[in-house]
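Lab notebook, design round three. We kept the backbone fixed and only want residue identities now. Task for the bench partner: fill in a sequence for the structure below.
Input structure tokens:
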């Protein structure tokens, strides 16, 4: 009887441990940025109190020799602004974008890129992979911005807030390949 129990326990242990394989490294790792920049470090060192203004979670695809805009990112189609899960932005206080007050909360950020302008979209849906389930009826805000061509190409899709450490206004900067887009945000 002890042998049978030992054998059953051993088989169950092997099965359980076999199920716990580590997740492979994603080709487009998730990253985040804060307003203010490096908020967790600032809070730990006592330089800031309270919540940050905003935080963005996004996947960082690589250019990897591909044609990005007009290629893998199609013009005139909804794009998740990154890779994998749709990009999420959380505002920890009300902010103003394009003259509209955006309530404190978490939103999904999408984009419709065109050659001469991008339409950035704040949407109320959450937990979306890609833009496959994008529902424009859940849009809270749409803002048109003009992409700027940069001399240097950026290999990894990148998002960050500029001038956002001690200011009530910032720019959400979006960079990839040779394009740069900025979205003014204030509170």
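Proposed sequence:
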């Amino acid at each position: 009887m002890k042998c049978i129990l030992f054998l059953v326990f051993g088989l169950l242990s092997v099965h359980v441990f076999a199920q716990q394989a580590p997740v492979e490294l994603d080709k487009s790792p998730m990253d985040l940025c804060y307003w203010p920049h490096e908020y967790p470090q600032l809070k730990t060192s006592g330089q800031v109190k309270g919540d940050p203004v905003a935080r963005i979670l996004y996947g960082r695809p690589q250019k990897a020799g591909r044609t990005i805009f007009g290629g893998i990112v199609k013009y005139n189609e909804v794009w998740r602004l990154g890779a994998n899960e749709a990009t999420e932005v959380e505002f920890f206080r009300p902010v103003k974008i394009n003259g509209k007050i955006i309530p404190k909360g978490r939103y999904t950020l999408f984009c419709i890129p065109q050659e001469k302008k991008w339409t950035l979209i704040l949407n109320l849906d959450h937990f979306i992979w890609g833009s496959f389930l994008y529902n424009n009826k859940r849009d809270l805000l749409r803002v048109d911005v003009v992409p700027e061509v940069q001399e240097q190409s950026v290999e990894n899709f990148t998002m960050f807030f500029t001038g956002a450490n001690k200011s009530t206004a910032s720019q959400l900067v979006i960079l990839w390949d040779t394009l740069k887009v900025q979205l003014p945000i204030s509170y």
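Keep this in mind before ordering anything: The first helix runs from residue 2 to 18.
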